[in-house]
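Can't paste images in this forum, so I'm doing it all in text. The chain is below; anyone willing to post the predicted structure tokens underneath?
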Amino acid sequence: MKGTHLLIFIFLALVLIMGCSRENHPDIRIPSVSLSLLSEGPITIADPIDIALNIYHRKKDKVSFPEEDQAFIPFQLDDLIVKTSRVRGNQFKTMVIYTIRIFDTGEFTLAPLPVHVGEAALKTEKLPITVLSVLPKDDPNPALKDIRAPYRPKMRKIMFFIIPLSIIGAVAAAYFIRKLIGQKPGELSKLVFAEKKIDPYEYSITELTLLKKEHEENTQETRNIYSKLSFVLRLFVGSMLEFNALKMTTGEIRRHLGRKGNMPLPSQRLMSILKRSDLVKFAKEKPQREKIQRDISESIEIVQKVHDMYPVKNEALKADDV
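Text version of the structure:
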């Protein structure tokens, strides 16, 4: 009798264990995909945003997912990590962790990402993402805020004396210089120099080639490299398309190119390098050595491609512009 009770107890224990196991591992539809936001708390402009793409499939299924910037517009893709683990039996889960950024504020929506599992074509749901311009303090309900001072700036009292004195000094200096020059009109002809013209294409290729050599020899810091890349690309593209790119922000250049439709082919690569230059200069980002080398090589390709697209506009620059 005791043996019968023992067998019944063991049977019930096994049933209970199997039931718990099914609760821990619920049935998953194969294949299926889902997209979720991993970054917690308010997201501000240029912050790295982590999102997770979960793909459930069988072991033999071939899985493909987006790996290019175009699938994440208006966001920029910085990095991705792929992890595959077994769920149970022949069921597996591939997790793709993307790191993206955006250099604007507002309510954005990440479009559905296309995923292929074997012969099945799947899509994720849309993912809404809110991006703030500044991180509010002591605010339980953060909302979009403009980047501006919370109070009206006040001028120090001493500035009421310094500013007028500076103006008077500048006027006096200009008067004496003009009087001095007016006393020797014969010497004015000596101050006229011939303007030296520089070809923008030759200048840009020369500077980028030298920069590539300095990077290979490890004689330039990352910040200096990206400062030079940004300057050369802005100077060249601005001279080719006849707009003052040196005095524009990266966002203004992007809007100008998009509005004009001036440069449809390499514009995406150009903006990617300019954005990374901003992050290195202002956010102290440190790209890997391979990425720096690739950005320099792509800059040379962009200059060559734009030069081939606009050979007529390849006019010389003044030495003062450089």
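Residues 21-25, 146-151, 184-195 have pLDDT under 50 and may be disordered. The chain has seven helices and twelve strands.
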